[in-house]
Amino acid sequence: MNRPATRIVLTLLLALAAALLCAALHTPLPWMMGPLLSTALLTMTGGPAASATPLRNTGQWVIGGALGLYFTPQVLSMLLGLWWVISLGIVWALVLGFLAGAFLFRLHARPGLMHIPGVTRLTTHFASPIGGASEMTILGERFGGQTELIAAAHSLRILMVTLIVPFGMQLSGMHGLDMSLPGPRVVAWPGLALWLLLTGAGCWLMLRLRGSNPWFLGALGMSILLTATGVNLSALPQPMTNAAQLVLAIGLGVRFTPGFIRMAPRWMLSVAFTTVAMILLCVGFAWLLSWASGLPWATLILGVAPGGIAEMSITAKVLQLGVPLVTAFHVTRVAAVLLLTEPMFRGWLRLSAAK
Questions:
Q1: Phi and psi angles of residue 203, each rounded to the nearest 5 degrees, phi first
Q2: CB burial readout 106-127, b (16+ within 10 A) else e
Q3: CB of 145 within 8 A of CB of 121?
Q4: 284-304: per-residue pLDDT in tens?
Q5: Contact criterion met (CB below 8 Å) for 318 and 68
Q6: HSE on the CB side for 123, CA within 13 Å?
Q7: Which residue among 108, 240, 242, 322 has its CA within the 20 to 30 Å range from the CA of 56?
Q8: What is the dihedral of CA 152, 153, 154, 160, to 10 degrees?
């Protein structure tokens, strides 16, 4: 039972059964929700769940490439005209993350019921940005932050957003017809093989450049380049994208170890509260953006939601809610977070020292 290969196989079988059950129950994103919940529950109770890194990387490769198929020349032209909407989304994400970090620090640093000894502003700052979870943990460790709190905060936020937003949209009846259909719409096996080779080269290049999230962004970038230049090699078979969602969900679910439940309950409670508040604020901000731009409110909710790029983009794909716009929001936001989170913290330190 403790052999890694056995644990991986058992986890895959459990995730598959959960996905099929969710599909039968008509839940949103069954190939992500079922595996995510079942794997997380198994892991938190000490069960033999395991995720294979090569499978998770392949899942990111497939999902990133699949999203890139939506970026036709017409769609790119439309996105260029919406640069101001995307820019406002970036500013919103940076400000919201900074304020969330300040709130967590004030809540836990002061004496009282929620006080956590030793918590620092650095820890809360890197625990709060929207996007770049693994990179924020690395940066927090570099500066001397409490990495276990930073990693736990990002994991819990992504889990909650992945569960709450799709279910909330389904219960509210939000749906749509995505007018930006993918370029290729028919599976052509020789073309698919070439597409996999080229997007795999994009992943390899991003790995060599040591870029952030290379398997996802490398495949996404190459797929966008092919689609935007009119090279439509093949659509992706639905079972392939379903399997990719499943292995990505397992990769997220196994983060929730038994120790996760016991980790600073006050910290996890405050992160959960902050996440719900962020979701509600993002829904309100999306409404304002929709009013100002005329874009669908549901699409903008996914675009500004404080979730992961893969999870929110998959939600847009499954619910047919503006895949290119949602993906553009999240890709540019991640880039801004990775570039600006550290300078923002240094600037805050200088301002604090000057007072």
A1: -65, -45
A2: ebbbeeeebebeebbbbbbbbb
A3: no
A4: 999 999 999 988 898 899 999
A5: no
A6: 23
A7: 322
A8: 100
- Nearest partner of 38 among 25, 49, 51, judged by Cα: 49
Distances in Å between the Cα of 334 and the Cα atoms of 51, 93, 206, 308, 338 are 24, 9, 15, 9, 6
pLDDT at 315 over 60: yes
**Pairwise CA distance, residues 302 & 330, whole Å:** 9
Mean pLDDT value across residues 84-88: 94
Angle formed by the axes of helices 238-253 and 4-25, nearest 10°: 120
Query: What residues contact residue 245 under an 8 Å CB cut-off, 6+ apart?
Result: 29, 31, 32, 35, 59, 63, 314
Short-list 131, 166, 137, CA closest to 309? 131
Q: Are 28 and 298 contacting, i.e. CB atoms less than 8 angstroms apart?
A: no
- In this structure, are residues 220 and 206 in contact, taking their beta carbons and an 8 Å threshold? no
Which residue has better confidence, 147 or 84? Answer: 84
Task: List the one residue out of 354, 353, 313, 349 whose CA is nearest residue 331.
Answer: 313
**pLDDT for 229-266, tens place per residue?**
988 888 899 999 999 999 999 988 888 887 777 777 88
HEC profile of 52-120: CHHHHHHHHHHHHHHHHCCCCHHHHHHHHHCHHHHHHHHHHHHHHHHHHHHHHHHHHHCCCCCCCCCCC
Domains of the chain: 4-354 (1.20.1530)
Asked if 127 and 140 count as a contact pair (C-beta separation under 8 A), the reply is yes
Q: What is the pTM of this model?
A: 0.85
Report the pLDDT value the prediction gives residue 146, as an integer from 0 to 100.
81
Longest pairwise C-alpha distance within the chain: 65
Report d(CA 330, CA 216) in Å as an integer: 12
* pLDDT in the model for residue 180: 58
- In Å, how far from its chain's centre is CA 242? 17
**b vs e for 139-153, b when ≥16 Cβ sit within 10 Å of the residue's Cβ?**
bbeeeebbbbbbbbb
